[in-house]
Design a protein that fits this description.
This protein is α+β, with helices and mostly antiparallel strands and 379 residues long. It has 14 helices and 7 strands.
Length: 379
């Protein structure tokens, strides 16, 4: 990321930086070396260039561009896993009397991110970092703030409880929501992690509603330019919703009634009440119409049944020369316990094409995956 003079820019709702000019009062070659390193893309060179730029800026506070150079250096360090090294940068920026290159909220996040990264990540450090993130959850997202939320959620120091993961991921998802059309995978991953952690912590039906909201949003988002990248997240959300329904059906009939209503709402909103059809590909002819004439026959894994284990697997398959083929697991929840049983169960699956087709030019071959969900319920 390369920064321009004086101000970071907002592009499509996310802070982006552009090229840094040559600075008159810093050592000759500092800015050029930084710009060359960023353009070159080598991770180690970018980190070293950021360190050099920060050192030059801190050593020359009288330079009119010292502040923007220092912040850009700190930004790069935090984006590349070296945020602890940004502590002196944040401290330097706090001493400046003139205008900062960013608003104070961005500086607050940089300082908190750097301090937390350098800490033992104990209860006190986590509490302090979370307080700053909470205060800035509605701040306009930038690559720095998104990295801060991302890193906090991903940290597993001290093996945080599911409730803690839920809190952190919820903050991250809320912060990223305004730019979910720009960064849909990152937003959806956080939103789904929040909902799944909530379910693991509380078994609340609200967790299933949250998953359904993510799934519905993804169904709409994956119709656009991010479709391919979002497919795996979409399948994971579908699997989580199905697995939660399996849990309620197995353990709590009253709550299962509510779960059924959620599933009906999702089916109504996203059209997934026809689960055999994948997303249409404009480059492929329409798939001919047909129906299953023999269903899969999976066998409940013995260990899973003995341990009271429920779950869901989302399978995908292609049509090759008119026949279902290339069965594969697209997503499974909560783990892989039911994957092999699901794949084995497809051995009995048979498909028949309709004799009369609405579209005479339809195809019986498609690599756009047809989707078949399998849900494992204990009666």
């Amino acid at each position: 990321m390369i920064l321009k003079r004086a101000r970071a820019l907002l592009v499509a709702g996310v802070c982006l930086a552009v090229e840094l000019p040559v600075l008159a009062q810093m050592p000759p070659g500092t800015a050029e070396a930084y710009n060359d390193a960023i353009a070159g893309g080598d991770e180690s060179q970018m980190l070293q260039a950021a360190r050099d730029l920060a050192a030059a800026a801190i050593a020359h506070p009288e330079d009119p561009d010292a502040a923007v150079s220092a912040f850009e250096a700190g930004n790069q360090l935090c984006l590349r896993g070296a945020c602890a090294e940004a502590r002196p940068i944040a401290a330097f920026l706090r001493t400046l009397d003139g205008d900062l290159p960013v608003n104070t909220k961005q500086l607050d996040v940089l300082e908190a991110f750097a301090n937390w990264s350098a800490s033992k990540k104990d209860k006190s450090a986590n509490k302090a970092f979370q307080a700053v993130l909470t205060a800035n959850v509605k701040t306009e997202p930038s690559y720095l703030t998104i990295a801060a939320f991302d890193t906090f959620v991903a940290d597993r120091s001290g093996r945080p409880r599911w409730g803690v993961v839920h809190e952190r991921a919820s903050l991250a998802a809320e912060h990223m929501k305004p730019v979910r059309n720009v960064l849909p995978v990152r937003w959806a991953t956080m939103a789904l992690q929040s909902a799944s952690a909530q379910f693991n912590a509380t078994k609340s039906i609200e967790a299933m509603r949250s998953v359904a909201d993510v799934e519905t949003a993804l169904f709409e988002l994956r119709e656009g330019e991010h479709a391919d990248a979002l497919d795996l997240v979409y399948y994971k959300a579908y699997a989580w919703r199905s697995a939660m329904g399996a849990y309620y059906r197995s353990t709590d009939k009253k709550t299962y009634k509510l779960a059924e209503e959620i599933e009906e709402d999702v089916d109504s909103l996203n059209g997934s009440n026809e689960p055999y059809w994948g997303r249409a590909d404009g480059d492929e002819p329409d798939l001919c119409e047909g129906k299953p004439i023999a269903q899969p026959s999976p066998i409940y894994p013995r260990d899973a049944a003995r341990n009271g284990y429920v779950g869901a697997v989302i399978l995908g398959f292609d049509f090759v020369d008119g026949a279902p083929a290339n069965y594969r697991v697209l997503a499974s929840v909560p783990d892989g316990a039911f994957e092999q049983a699901s794949l084995d169960g497809m051995k009995t699956f048979r498909w028949e094409w309709d004799v009369e087709q609405k579209n005479p030019d339809c195809s019986r071959t498609s690599t756009d995956p047809a989707i078949y969900p399998m849900v494992y319920v204990l009666q």
